[in-house]
Target: HNH endonuclease
Amino acid sequence: MAHVRSGRHGWQHQKLRAKTQRLIDAEGGATCWRWAAGEPSPKCARFIPPHTPAAWHLGHAADRVTYAGPECVACNLWDAARVTNGMRSGRTRERVELDW
Ligand SMILES: [Zn+2]
Model:
């Protein structure tokens, strides 16, 4: 499962992911933070089961820097697409998260 990708996401990201995974496992699952925040994607999985690192990504708040919580893959991709569509001002987007 774990293929380590160089660049892009640093070790801090990896550590945060690992730590969050442990929390999810310990809790017996987690709720997608977007669902909890009331702005889920149309395909939000809502529940993130334990021991399924492929089912979630690290979610980021609107500023795209602050870590918001575990986010289901559907929401993460939806959010990335939304940002792509919404930002046509010539700014380079720095985040596309594909972890599988
Ligand atoms: Zn979601």
